[in-house]
Amino acid sequence: MAKTKDGTAGKKKRKKKAAKGGDKNGKSGDAKLKVGSEFETVFFANPKVDSPLPFRATHADERRAPKVILCADSRVGIGQRCKVRVSSIKKPASRDRGHIEVEFLSRVTFRLDDSIWVEPTLGKKLHALLESGMNILLDGPQGSGKTVLSRKIAEALGFEYVFFNCSSIFEATDFLATLQIRATDSGQAETVWIPTDILRALEGALRDPERRVLIFLDEFNRCREMARNGIMPALDSTRKLYNPLTGSTVDIPDNVLWIAAINNGAQFTGTTSVDPAQLDRFAPIKMDYPPRDEEIRILAERNPSVARSSIERIVDAANGVRKDEGLGVDLSMRATEEVCILLGHPNFSELDAAVAVPELLQTSFCARFPGRWDDASTDAGLVWQVIVRTLAL
Ligand SMILES: Nc1ncnc2c1ncn2[C@@H]1O[C@H](COP(=O)(O)OP(=O)(O)OP(=O)(O)O)[C@@H](O)[C@H]1O
Ligand SMILES: [Mg+2]
Fold first, then answer.
1. Which domain holds residue 42?
2. Are both 253 and 160 inside the same structural domain?
3. Residue 4 has pLDDT above 60, yes or no
4. I need a labelling partner for 117 at 20 to 30 A (CA). Which of 195, 230, 293, 342 fits?
5. Residue 188: which CATH number?
6. Domain presence at residue 213
7. What is the mean pLDDT of residues 194-199?
């Protein structure tokens, strides 16, 4: 057909192609899908209930796929965007119109549930960093959600979660194994290397590339500085660690993601400074307490029996303390949660909130600081004065 000046023939051609399954630009998803192709899609339950492949999708990267896409891996989840790879393409058989079989790679929709608040720009940055496979360092005051966020990230991405507290690390090798003394059957003492959860996770991830593991190094700046050097080659392009069990190095496969958390600041005793070279191996994410309305929303959802007006007063008192320049202290969200939990307990829920809230603030807020709430020469007393001012008690 000759092409007309106004391109009518071209439009018709495009329409025809779209009807066959191509997109509005005339591109067909068909030609591009071959074994090994990777794309994003959303699965739903396969209506063929007896199928060994219980998850079914119809689109690949927003284009209609030439055949239905089927998957057996429950990690794809129903209604969740995920990345998959074509493992085989089945030709039509007598009663089957053929299908594309895929393997699960990762969850794409990085959506943290509403139970955690993350500053929106930070959330986007976090998502991009995670997709790029970069190491992340969460830095924030106590009780600002670092640990809980790391767990939510693992959930959102469908990763296995390995929690590792670095404060028990003394030697560089302790990240992978610890030397322990135990008694043999004959009662003799023997020393043995016990693999840590990190080593077990690394070995599992190496054995099975389908496994995706997030290793969370909590309290990263509470281990000896020299010991921390031991993990540095795992965090840069070397991606290797010395394994004391074998005396050789273990590879860190690409299906392993690292997130570390620190409390940074002079007020945190027991921490060691993370040197610039160590810091440089991470993309830093600065965390802070949720804004007032978000903290109230989260606490109200977790403590439905507590009056919203009481929760508002608790959060206002906390923010008064957190923002007071003279005090220069942090107050964890654990403290606001603690007051809410106590208020919801029958021992306090009977009391008039006007009495119970200030009483609980004295014990749960002020008691986190040295001194007494009724002694204005102490930190606890100064905190109480700020609360009195903030709530006009
Ligand atoms: N942004 C947030 N969204 C929802 N909950 C939060 C948030 N920040 C803190 N919390 C709540 O506060 C409590 C403490 O959080 P978490 O243990 O994650 O703090 P952290 O930053 O790891 O503290 P630390 O530095 O002391 O280890 C948890 O119950 C958590 O649910
Ligand atoms: Mg923590």
1. 32-106
2. yes
3. no
4. 342
5. 3.40.50.300
6. yes
7. 94
Q: Is the pLDDT of residue 88 over 70?
A: yes
Q: With contact defined as beta carbons under 8 Å apart, do 329 and 369 qualify?
A: yes
Is residue 26 over pLDDT 50? Answer: no
Q: Rounded to whole angstroms, how far apart are CA atoms 197 and 175?
A: 9
84 and 125 inside one domain: no
Q: At what angle do helices 120-131 and 146-157 cross, to 10 degrees?
A: 50
pLDDT band (50, 70, 90) for residue 30 = low
Question: Which CATH number goes with the domain that contains 59?
Answer: 2.40.50.140
Domain end point (choices 286, 315, 337): 286
Distance CA 162, CA 205 (A): 12
pLDDT(28) > 90: no
45 within some domain: yes
> pTM for the whole thing?
0.72
Look up residue 125 and give its two tokens: 């940055």
Instruction: Measure the CA–CA gap between 115 and 203, rounded to whole angstroms.
Output: 33
Q: How many domains does the chain have?
A: 3
Verify that 101 and 186 share a domain, yes or no: no
Q: Which of 113, 138, 147, 319 to mutate to test the pocket of ligand 1 (most atoms within 8 A of CB)?
A: 147
Is the domain of 213 the same as that of 303?
no
Which ligand neighbours the alpha carbon of 148 most closely?
1
Instruction: Give the residue, out of 119, 142, 147, 148, with the most ligand 1 atoms within 8 A of its beta carbon, to mutate for a pocket test.
Output: 148
Least confident of 82-91, 92-101, 280-289: 92-101
Mean pLDDT across 345-355: 89
User: Domain boundary at 48, 76, 106, which?
Assistant: 106
Residue whose CA is closest, atom 3 of ligand 1? 116
Q: Could you read off the pLDDT of 114-166 as tens digits, one per residue?
A: 889 998 888 888 888 887 888 999 999 889 999 999 999 888 877 899 999 99
41 three-class SS: strand
- Which residue lies with its CA nearest to atom 23 of ligand 1? 143
**Which secondary-structure segment (H or E) carries 322?**
helix 308-323
Let me know whether 142 and 86 are in one domain: no
Q: How many CB atoms sit inside 10 A of residue 327's CB?
A: 17
